[in-house]
């Protein structure tokens, strides 16, 4: 089995001090950086929200379900990967959501190639998914990974959730889809 790590949206705007901060985001960035060297992944990739004008995804009065405050806007510091995330092992960053909402890393592309195609071109058949937020983009990425035929695990201790109730619902959905859940979520408000 050839396993890759998919690091989901560990960006400045999703960590403490960002425009859509998730409690524990910075700790997740550090924990992922500590995890990677000894884990023996064949490949390591990251995803980023990369918004130019995502339409109704942004709202002045967000509902925090389908609409959100402006975040990860191209040209701002908030779009960048967090400084505590070691970028050296990351081979490619898949940007998503320029002109529409995009939660799954499988909606992103790097040099014109989508994530599933990039992984398949490298004979990857299994992925570990980590990052922010457990109940939104991590969930969507893991669901798309298993749907695309990858053996999929979410390493919960390397994720941070927005809220306890939505994180629990996401975990139920992941289990039902056949995603293997490892450990426990580091943070859920």
The geometry reads as globular
Distance between the termini: 36 Å
Q: Give the helix level as a range of percent.
A: 25-40%
% residues in beta strands: 15-25%
Q: How many distinct beta strands?
A: 9
Structural class: alpha/beta
Number of helices: 4
Mean pLDDT: 95
- Major sheet: 7 strands, parallel
Unreliably modeled segments: none
Quick synopsis:
With 189 residues, the chain is α/β, with parallel strands linked by helices. 26% of the residues lie in helices and 24% in strands.
Describe the structure.
The chain is of the alpha/beta class and about 190 residues long. About 25% of the residues lie in helices and about 25% in strands. The chain has four helices and nine strands. It has helices at about 25-40, 115-120, 135-145, 165-175; strands at about 5-10, 45-50, 90-95, 110, 115, 125-130, 150-160, 180, 185-189. The strands form two sheets. Strands 1, 2, 3, 6, 7, 8 and 9 form a seven-stranded parallel sheet that branches. Strands 4-5 form a two-stranded antiparallel sheet. α3 packs parallel to α4. The longest helix is centred in the first third of the chain and has 15 residues, at about 25-40. The radius of gyration is 15 Å and the shape is globular. It starts with a strand and ends with a strand.
């Amino acid at each position: 089995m050839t396993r890759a790590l998919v690091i989901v949206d560990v960006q400045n705007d999703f960590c403490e001090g960002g425009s859509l901060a998730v409690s524990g985001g910075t700790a997740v960035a550090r924990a992922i950086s500590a995890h990677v060297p000894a884990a023996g992944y064949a490949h390591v990739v990251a995803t980023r929200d990369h918004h130019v004008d995502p339409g109704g995804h942004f709202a002045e009065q967000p509902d925090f379900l389908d609409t959100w405050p402006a975040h990860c806007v191209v040209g701002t510091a908030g779009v960048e990967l967090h400084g505590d995330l070691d970028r050296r092992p990351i081979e490619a960053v898949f940007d998503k959501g320029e002109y529409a909402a995009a939660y799954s890393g499988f909606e992103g592309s790097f040099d014109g190639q989508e994530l599933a195609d990039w992984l398949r071109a490298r004979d990857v058949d299994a992925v570990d998914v980590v990052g922010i937020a457990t109940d939104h983009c991590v969930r969507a990425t893991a669901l798309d990974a298993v749907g695309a035929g990858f053996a999929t695990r979410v390493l919960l201790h390397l994720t941070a959730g927005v809220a306890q109730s939505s994180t629990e619902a996401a975990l139920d959905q992941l289990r039902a889809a056949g995603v293997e859940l490892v450990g426990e979520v580091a943070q859920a408000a």
